[in-house]
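Standup notes
- DV: blocked on the single-chain target, sequence here:
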Amino acid sequence: MVSIPTWFIYSLVGAIFAAFSTIFAKIGLQGLNSITVTTLRSIIMTIIIFIIFILEVRNINNLFNLSNKDYIFVILSALFGSISWIAFFYALKIGKASNVSIIDRSSFLFVVLLGIIILNEELTIKKVIASILMFIALVLLVI
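- DV (later): unblocked, structure below
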């Protein structure tokens, strides 16, 4: 029997929920400013994530037991994530949900590239071929 890795299951669930999130956001953006929607979404997400954090970790001190390096990278991730969301919701407001989502999901190509450059991940022929094919697929889907 083939065992499906846990990371794959969580990734797939994340992708499915991201798809619903995009569709619901597109519907919710009608007549609203994209920054307003992004802000409200962020507040609601913060509340939900904090509740899950309290239920899962049960120790708020974990938020304060990080190293300076941990804080720096969490802050950088939040900064870049915020800019990503703002750009995504603005694009979603004025563009087709399917096209915007496809371009947004092209981030995986940048993750492959940055993983190689910053994280010293291995560049394999398989990654090169897959990235080229994915790029071609993205172009074909958007045109």
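- Follow-up: The helical segments are 6-28, 34-57, 68-94, 97-104, 107-117, 125-142.
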